Amino acid sequence: MFKFKKQPKILELKGVRIGGFPANPPVMIGTIFYHGHKLVQDSKEGLFDKSLAESLINSQEELSDKTGIPGLIDVASDSPKAIVKYMDFVANLTSKPFLVDAVSRDVMEAAVNYASEVGLMDRIIINSINPKTSDEELSFLRERGARYAVLLLYTHKIIDVKERLKIASEMLPKLASIGIDTPLVDTFVIDIPSLSISLRTMIYIKNEYGLPVGSGAHNAVSSMKKHFKQKYSKEGVDAMEITSDISPLLMGGDFVLYGPIELHKHMLPSAYLVYTSYRYLYRNQENLLNL
User: Residues 6 or more apart from 138 whose CB is under 8 A from it?
Assistant: First the structure.
């Protein structure tokens, strides 16, 4: 475990603290209504199996209470109409903040407009802002009073730490200028090789900026899940998913977008194990590695 140069910045909203691991527990974020999710009946209209969705969210909430590991929801959609219905459902089912996974500008604007209208701006985290986000989109977020967002260090140079750090140095002032002072920094995983690059970038970001860091580490597996399942079986893929999603915590990560919400039964107990172990090391400061 590392002792970073910068004091950690904590994003605290609605009783959830993100940042400062292992002083604070890691936050595990599961995605619901994702592309191909079996509970979605019509992705454009936002029709879905409410009973199954409620069961999944409640199950994560219960396991979060048992483990002490905060479990949040990432609400995904490629439809402006659907995203509003999904947000309304999640907001009424949990009191916690949640992420809005806006895959396009029109979806993001629909989500933010709805949140602004019904008083959810203090609960939503925009997922995500990245180098392709236009100045017009940033202005829109400022005008609507957006305060929380994920900064995705997206780059075509997948195996490149320096490029990710360059993006951070360019984007963080832009976010600060629109009122987003403590973004969650996603160091960008898209496949297995990029996972290690993402982990190394996390260390630099925490050391230089003190910001909450993490990643969608599950992408390391999901990008080739069908192939891995054929080669290693479902049990093998399960093991790979747990390994990829827990790896950011081993390097001091503060949050993980762990993939489909169905995986929460594996991910929260695994995060509990790492957190509990690292807390003992953290209490004995002399054993930390100074960076």
Answer: 129, 174, 175, 177, 178
Percentages helix, strand, coil for the chain (3-state, rounded to 5) are 50, 20, 30
13, amino acid identity: L
Q: Which residues pair with 75 in a beta bridge?
A: 32, 100
The string of DSSP codes covering 104-153 is: SHHHHHHHHHHHHHHT-TTTEEEEEE-TT--HHHHHHHHHHT---EEEE-
176 to each of 147, 179, 271, how far by Cα in Å? 10, 5, 31
Could you report the per-residue pLDDT of 187-208, keeping only the tens digit for each?
A: 999 999 999 999 999 999 999 9
The model carries a pTM of 0.97
Structure tokens at 162: 């320096």
Report pLDDT digits (tens) over 245-282: 999 999 999 999 999 999 999 999 999 999 999 998 88
Task: Enumerate domains of the chain plus CATH numbers.
Answer: 2-13+21-290 (3.20.20.20)
| Cα angle, residue 3 at apex, residues 162 and 6 outer, rounded to 5° | 65
Q: What is the pLDDT of residues 9-32, one digit of tens each?
A: 999 999 999 999 999 999 999 999
Separation in Å, CA 252 to CA 138, 208, 242: 30, 14, 16
Q: Is the peptide bond before 183 cis (omega within 30 degrees of 0)?
A: no
Tokens for 246?
């827990």
**Nearest-CA neighbor of 181 among 224, 149, 134?**
149
Strands (DSSP E) contained in the chain are 2-3, 11-13, 16-18, 27-32, 40-42, 47-48, 71-77, 98-102, 124-129, 149-152, 184-186, 213-215, 255-260, 289-290
Calculate the CA dihedral of residues 236, 239, 243, 244 and round it to 10 degrees.
60
Distance between CA atoms of 131 and 57, rounded to whole angstroms?
32
